[in-house]
Every structure is written in structure tokens, then in C-alpha cells.
Amino acid sequence: MTRTIDTIGRAARHDMLIRIECGHCHHVGHHRAYEVAKVVGMGRSIESIRFVCSRCKTPARKAVPIEFDRDRPPKVAVWVQMELKR
């Protein structure tokens, strides 16, 4: 039985990436689902999370989960949240 990956928690459990595409400048970014889930919570649906484009500062148009195979990683830059120690 297959299940739809509709929440950020399910995507994080499957170690997926979230592909975000800007509707204005068509910039594409990738985030690890686990990193996003730490910020917004595991129960949020992927469609309800609001992302903002880092280039043109407009709301992102589309966010979809994609598979991440550790044996054959995608050739994309994956944004990781960093903590600064003060």
C-alpha cells in the first residue's frame, strides 16, 4: 500500500529533499525535509509552508518533495540551516 507524502514529517522520515521553485524569477532551491521540519513542525502540510525566494524576495510558487538517494546524490546545491554561536 502506497501513501502520499503530504506532510513535512513524512518527507523527513523518508529522508527527502524539498524542491522550491520561484514563480517570478524561476529560481530553484532545495532544502532537506528534516531541516525544514525542525523549524515548522512535523505535522505541517508541504503546501502550507511559505517559502520566500532568496533572489527576488517574492513568495515561492511550488514546493514538492523529491527522493534523495544517498548512493547517487543529485547534482544540486542543498541549503542547510546553520546556527551561529555567539
Low-pLDDT residue intervals, each spanning 5 or more residues:
none
**How many DSSP-defined strands?**
4
Q: How far is the first residue's CA from the last residue's CA?
A: 48 Å
* Count of alpha and pi helical runs: 2
Helix content: 10-25%
Q: How large, in whole angstroms, is the Cα Rg?
A: 13 Å
Strand order of the largest sheet: 3-1-2-4
- Coarse shape: globular
What fraction of residues sit in β-strands? Answer: 15-25%
Topology order in helix (H) and strand (E) letters = HEEHEE
Structural class: alpha+beta
Q: Quote the average pLDDT.
A: 85
For the largest beta-sheet, the strand count, sense and barrel status come to: 4 strands, mixed
Task: Summarize the structure in words.
- The chain has 86 residues and is of the alpha+beta class.
- The chain is built from two helices and four strands, in the order H-E-E-H-E-E.
- It has a four-stranded mixed beta sheet.
- Strand 1 (17-22) and strand 2 form a beta hairpin.
- The protein is globular.
